[in-house]
Structure formats: C-alpha cells, structure tokens
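Entry 12.
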Amino acid sequence: MTEKQQKIVSKYAGRCHLCHGDIPVGAEIWWEPGGYGATHIECQSKEDARPWDRIRKLAVAMREFGAAYDRYHPVRHECEAAQVSLDSNERHLVGLTENGQKVDDHTIQSIQRDRDRLAVAQPEADRLQPEYDRLKAELQALLAEYKLDPKDEDAARRIAWEKEV
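Predicted 3D structure (tokens):
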C-alpha cells in the first residue's frame, strides 16, 4: 500500500490492476487516485501480486539457474566422459590379460589419466550439484505457480527476458 492509497467501497465495476480480475460494485478495495486504479484487498496483501514483480522474479530465477547450469554441466559431462573412457580402457585391459596378450604402457597410462580426470571432476560435480538441483526446483516451482509449462523452458525464458527490467 502506498501513502496515497485509501480503502474504499467501489462505486463502479472495474478490474483489479494486479490480478486483472473483476471488481464488482460495492466491493471493498484499495483505491489510488491519479490513474493508478483499484486493487482487491486480497491482492494488495499478496506478496508478489504484481505481474511485473512475478516476471522479474522469474527472470532472476532463470538467470541464476542458467549460471548454475553453465557451471555444473561441463563438470558433469567431464565426469561422464572420464567414466566411459575408464570403463572402456579397463575392459580393454581385461580382454588383453584374458587372451594372454601383453599389456602396453598406453593402456595403463590411459587408465591412470581417466582415473585422474575423474578424481578432479567428481568432487567438483558433487559440490555443484546441490545448488543446481535447488535452483532447478525453485525455477520449476515458479513456473508451476505462474501456470507455465515447466517442460517448455524456452517459452519461460522468452517471457522472462522480454519483460526483464
């Protein structure tokens, strides 16, 4: 509520400038002169009731999630790539030893390199994952709250960036 707003009983039917719902004649409303208009009593008390505030909140959540995604996914990809390479090299080593063939230094070095890559990337991925998961859950909750399809992240991103202030 601003200093100019006053609680009145509406003389005319209209629309709430926060939720865009109907205001019937005789309803108790907040009124602000000077073209600002009427607001339902319930809407005025809601946190985050103004559409612009919701859009800003969504834009911030998307930006934070995007930054977490940019930090987390390359590390997660490095872990997965190192694990796949390690598994492949270890299968190759088992195959060589089962067939009685000589194990070459390259295979041993590749296995050690993959283990080293995994030893560096895995703790970093484990450190980043909780923040990533938390921000993803917050974004999905906002999308659901604003009745946007959580699977349509591109639509949500367009809405957020088009309306960003």
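Annotation: The two ends are 22 Å apart (CA to CA). The chain has four helices and five strands.
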